[in-house]
Amino acid sequence: MLIIEKTNLFKIMSNILFTCAGRRNYLLQYFREALNGTGKIIAADMQLTAPAMAVADSSYVVPGVYDQNYIWNLLDICEKETVKGLISLNDLELPILAAKRKAFKLAGVKLILSNPEVIDICFDKNKTLLFGKKLGVKLPKTALRLKDAQIAIDTGQMKLPVVVKPRWGSASIGIEFPETKAELELSYQLQLKKLDHTSLFEASKNDLEKSILIQEKINGIEYGLDILNDFNGKPLQVYVKEKLAMRAGETDKAVLRNIPDLEELGFRIGKALGHIGNLDVDVFESGGDYYLLEMNPRFGGGYPFSQMAGANYPAAIVAWLEGKEYDFSEFKKNYDQVFAKCDTVVRVK
Length: 349
Description:
Blueprint: H1 2-12, E1 15-19, H2 25-35, E2 41-45, E3 58-61, H3 70-81, E4 83-88, H4 94-98, H5 101-106, E5 110-111, H6 116-123, H7 125-135, E6 142-143, H8 146-154, E7 162-166, H9 181-195, H10 201-204, E8 212-216, E9 221-229, E10 235-247, E11 250-256, H11 260-273, E12 278-286, E13 289-296, H12 303-308, H13 313-321, E14 338-340
Parallel strand pairs: 1-2, 1-4, 2-3, 4-5
Antiparallel strand pairs: 6-8, 7-8, 9-10, 9-12, 10-11, 11-14, 12-13
Helix pairs in contact: 2-13, 6-7
């Protein structure tokens, strides 16, 4: 009798594993509140000192995402902790996990992430631009080779300053803003050198000649869109935030804005892409036009501002994991309230 009761208890528990947990303490706390005692929060990271490890119910140190034993480590954790859902918080890990979806499904774990094709469109910034072009969205002028960018500048097709960044990038690693042709050449060569020493090399090594993007810098208001899709890839809600300040590549201060055109754009992107979970999108407004810059198929650093403004996507995810419906009318939109992040200190377990 005791064994049966324990088995039934496991069936209703919605234990969630966060991989590459890093500094996302707030996100783990949102899910803890959504679970309301019906499940555990488990965190995995390659560093024991990752702040999010300190706030999880169980924490595990794992090897790097490119280690051959990485997936097996995660599957062992899932079995030990009876994990029901897995959420990744790192771009580099997404294609690795997506390729092993079948193994996690056999283990009874729901990967809350998109399919490999969607992840590829988002991770490869050139494919992001091609997706935007097909959708009819305005895009910054872009070159894949230094020579092409120099010619475009000389002929007036591209204006300085420009943005130089990795084509397969994450967390604003290595972004430069050269203002002259001489600075452009130096920045480009520096980017190539930097790729050898960052976590982005593995993703870029197969096409180093076209591993750096050069884009015309868009001046204007920067917005972050949280496009919330269900597990079937259907867009259910869009939150539009004006970014007021950035720090280390993440939104530091933001305010929810009521801009129907941008919400409509978000729904168009969500429907066309068919991602699963949250899609973090960067858009610039300049001269009355909206320019698509980047898309990240995961919880981004700007999601807390949507949560604070009335969203509760973790509650929807928990409901779906438990096989329940979720009423999105419970989502609120408290416009024009400014929110800001602040640092906290946690004791490493």
